[in-house]
Amino acid sequence: MKQMIDSDDSDGESGMGNLNRFIVRPPGHSGKAKKGHLCFDASFETGNLGRVDLVNEYEYDLYIRPDTCSPRFRFWFNFTVDNVKQDQRVIFNIVNINKGRNLFNGQMTPLVKSTTRSKWQRIPKEYVFYHKSFSHHGHYVLSFSFGFDKEDEVFQFAMAPPYSYSRLQTFLSVLESKASHLKENFKRETIANTLQNRKVDQLTVGAANIIGGSKKIRTVAVMARVHPGESPTSFVCQGLLEILVSSNALATILRENVVFRIFPMLNPDGVFVGNYRSNISGLDLNRSWNMATPFSHPTIHAILEMLKSLDNSENEQLDFVIDIHAHSSLNGCFIYGNTYEDVYRYERHILFPKLLSASAIDYAKENTMFNADTLKNGTARRYLCCALSSKVNSYTLEVSFHGYKLKESDFIIPYTEESYKRCGLSLMKAFLEYYHCIGVIPIQPVKEIPTKREK
């Protein structure tokens, strides 16, 4: 069950500063660890746990390892516990979360799985408490009690379902095989290498046969995982790619008319070492689009140059740039867009969120926002709406770390890996409706239902 395998082209530095098979012994105990002396480990890809203190026989204070070179980011955690005793009960306090306002204030709880139960489950809310602790200098503390019911199991705890760089590489290799029937309409290539020499993949799907024709081919760019701790975005992107290369009628008609350029992981280094928000050198890449350089920000710089090239292309018309993120304090999926003085551009800009709202059962209209916030000038959404031409719609798609409400209901349904993937399908439906609305893809007339006589 342990995820301790480095990717094939890694440098073996996963888990820098993370605990490595750290056994917590009671005071005065030495020698071989006994059952019940918990062993904590986060020295694997996407792992994060920097320190454990024993408070008493049953209680442990856990410290998230801050992002590399950026100590203020502390939210993502992912670690394993083993060497447990049958029916041993413990209290874990995660004591150094840097975000006071987040979904743990509401109904969100940590995830857990174990060796023989490989499906992630939320710890029941009655065992989880998020509170200000005076014994921890007034910091917010996430406390949860847990009972280890099987002695020989390895238990894994995480803030959200992890999605590693290695997992992405495996998925893309499988996807290439599945997409072999698309021939020249599917292409996988490396657009850039990271500071630690991991590759950033670009997937190009659809409409290759009509590039260079009399009309410009419509193009959509989708990016994910610029913030490494936002693992739900990888599931959304995987769902989008799976439907896009399938024989589904929706995918087929989109591929015939639109080129999709997908960048599924913009920050592989940060993902690999278990950072929450930064790359390996401590930079928040989604505050750096307006200052990107080949040396400090090679991944987003390469994508920015490619997007500018597409925007100026004689063969392609770039319609969308969608940057997918996970939200730590709001539920549902929703769009952040821009505001414009040009009324016609703004009216065109608000069309796609309306269409997505109609196609996605988890869409949260109340969280949708359009602004020109100068504090966000370094984000992809804000910078690209200025750096690219007025034809391009630049959005952030947010999806909650926790769950969503069905329309006309206040009950929150926790997201799963599968329901995150469904967000990718919702995106595809909204793209089809958009291109129907603007006349790029004709609406197929519905054949009349024959009468009984005609039958």
UniProtKB/TrEMBL annotation:
Active site per the UniProt annotation: E398
Domain Peptidase M14: 161-430
Region (Disordered): 1-21
Pfam families, A to Z: Pepdidase_M14_N, Peptidase_M14
Top-level taxon of the source organism: Eukaryota
Cofactor(s) demanded: Zn(2+)
Bias (Acidic residues): 1-12
Entry similarity comment: Belongs to the peptidase M14 family.
Name of this protein: Peptidase M14 domain-containing protein
Native source organism of the sequence: Cryptolaemus montrouzieri
